[in-house]
Amino acid sequence: MFVSPSHPPVADTQAPEGPLPGRSLERPRDLVTLAVLAERTRPVSSSQARVLPVAPPLDALLPDGSLRRGTTIVVSGPGPGTDPDRAADGSISMALALLAAASGAGSWGAVVGLEGLGAVAAHELGIDLGRLAVIPRPGVAWAEVTATVIDGVDLVVLCPPFTPRQTMARRLMARARERRSILVVVSGRAGWPDPPDLCLRIDEARWDGAGTGEGFLSRREMTVTASGRRSAARPRHHQLWLPSITGAVADAGPAGRGDRAEPA
Q1: Which of 100, 145, 179, 225 has its CA 20 to 30 A from that of 246?
Q2: For residue 232, what pLDDT is reported?
């Protein structure tokens, strides 16, 4: 099941009253609730581990084949002039797919600012819903909420409502580095004002299964480009099914088609 500030993961201690369903978070009471949640879920895995695992189809996109603690990853869709809906362009699916293997290995994750997250779809991606905190409507305090949640979980997926100021973005990235957490930002058309450690850009995406007008959409093929700093400076491209027929992420295409690195 989903874990929210109003249903903390530890039941033997009384927590402050959490936010009511259907309304935004309110200061300062709800921030206290989130702080309690952060305290109860930290540490969620060994802080000595330098990296967290990802599903095998994603490892070719990441410099270490895994998620490095203390980093910020920005996931974006095809770019200006396309559908601004982050759910439609596949960027939300990509961000959630990064959670799957880590949560299955025992890490806690959180999703901030995403309304209408489907429990079935998240479960099919491989996310352990018992280790997922969901704050769908953080309200005007979304940056404070995100900073508080970073204190308590290994991986935070953030869907900001607008482009933050550069100073705000840098504070959140610094918080992730300090706490050895991983911040995944689904930027949408708004963008992100400061260069992250890694960018995952969905260059194109198409649905499969509808045929010539009949049938149901069964899976989505997308081409993803990864680029960033240091060991991620050389762009890499990979073709994925996300979701695949099973709902999880899967490699797309024959061997030699999915992963190719650009020459330096």
Answers
A1: 225
A2: 72
Collapse the DSSP code of 76 into the 3-class scheme (helix H, G, I; strand E, B; otherwise coil) and give the result.
strand
The verdict on residue 4 lying in a domain is no
9 lies in some domain: no
Instruction: Provide the domain limits for residue 110.
Output: 29-42+49-206
Structural domain includes residue 246: no
Q: Tell me the CATH number at 143.
A: 3.40.50.300
Distance CA 217, CA 243 (A): 10
Nearest to 183 by CA among 191, 175, 193, 194: 175
Give the pLDDT score at 41. Answer: 53
**Per-residue model confidence as pLDDT tens digits over 121-173:** 999 999 999 999 999 999 999 999 999 999 999 999 999 998 899 999 999 99
Dihedrals phi, psi of 117, to nearest 5 degrees = -65, 125
**The amino acid at 97:** A
Joined together, the tokens standing for residue 123 give: 């479960």
15 pLDDT band (50/70/90 cuts)? very low
CA-to-CA separations, 197 to 43, 64, 71, 184, 251, in angstroms, rounded: 23, 13, 6, 10, 24
pTM of the model: 0.77
Peptide bond before 28: cis, by omega within 30 degrees of 0? yes
Which residues, 6+ apart, have CB-to-CB distance to 222 below 8 Å? 90, 94, 202, 203, 204, 205, 206, 239, 240, 242, 252
262 located within any domain: no
Q: Report the DSSP beta bridge partners of residue 51.
A: 68
CA neighbours closer than 13 Å in the CB half-sphere of residue 188 = 17
Q: Residue 104: pLDDT band by 50, 70, 90 thresholds?
A: very high
> What are the residues whose beta carbons fall under 8 Å from the beta carbon of 21, sequence distance 6 or more?
6
Q: How many domains does the chain have?
A: 1
